[in-house]
Amino acid sequence: MGVKKALLIVDVQNDFCPAGALAVPEGDKVVPILNKYIKYFSKKKLPIFATRDWHPVQSRHFKPFGGVWPVHCIQNTPGANFHPGLKLPKDAILLYKGMYPDRDDYSAFQAEDTSGLNLLSLLRKMGVGEVYVAGLATDYCVKFSVLDALKNGFKVKLLADAIKGVDLKPGDSQKAIKEMVLKGAKIIRGNIDNAKRKVKK
């Protein structure tokens, strides 16, 4: 039996999609592709994790309080909800990050479930050794999640057809992808079939 795999979906929320408070260009385009991955991982009975920013009203993350970002993904607001087209299964493990006003929390490894368990604890508990990562945004939360996964000894596959970047500076997303690959992430490009060949329980 190979290494147990998991799918990690990062921050596919309304505020990061077109018309949102911090819209990632074409951020909603990842949704139908992600739904195919979700369906496949569900069929294989492999764990699916989904993170979301869950900020308090006042946070150093935001421009009004000294940060670099417009106010977004405030707890219990429509902007913090997952994109309505994202078909997460009932047994998806939801993780929340950015809840503390004095932290940025870009990485999924800083996210917690409702009982306070963080992603690392959950992956270890489930015996996961390889993580397939997708979502928003390539150059921030996806990048930091991938780097933390690698740092913690996980194999990482980056689903390049299901990520989009914010590109605060032009070229940030391409730089982020290069950095992730340099640190050990493997890129899956093209389509779900490429991933299917690699995902074996």
Tags for this model:
alpha/beta; Rossmann fold; 5 helices; 6 strands
Q: Give the ordered list of helices and strands.
A: EHEEHEHEHEH
CA-based shape:
globular
Distance between the termini: 7 Å
**Tally of separate helices:** 5
The biggest beta sheet, please?
6 strands, parallel
- Give the class from helix and strand content and strand pairing: alpha/beta
The top level CATH class name: Alpha Beta
Average pLDDT figure:
94
Query: Any idea what the CATH superfamily is called?
Result: Isochorismatase-like
State which percent range the strand residues make up.
15-25%
Provide an overview of this structure.
The chain is an alpha/beta fold and 201 residues long. It has one domain: Isochorismatase-like (Rossmann fold, 3-Layer(aba) Sandwich). It is 27% helix and 20% strand. The protein contains five helices and six strands. It has a six-stranded parallel β-sheet with strand order 3-2-1-4-5-6, sandwiched between helices. Helix 4 links the parallel strand 5 (155-164) and strand 6. The longest helix has 14 residues, at 30-43.
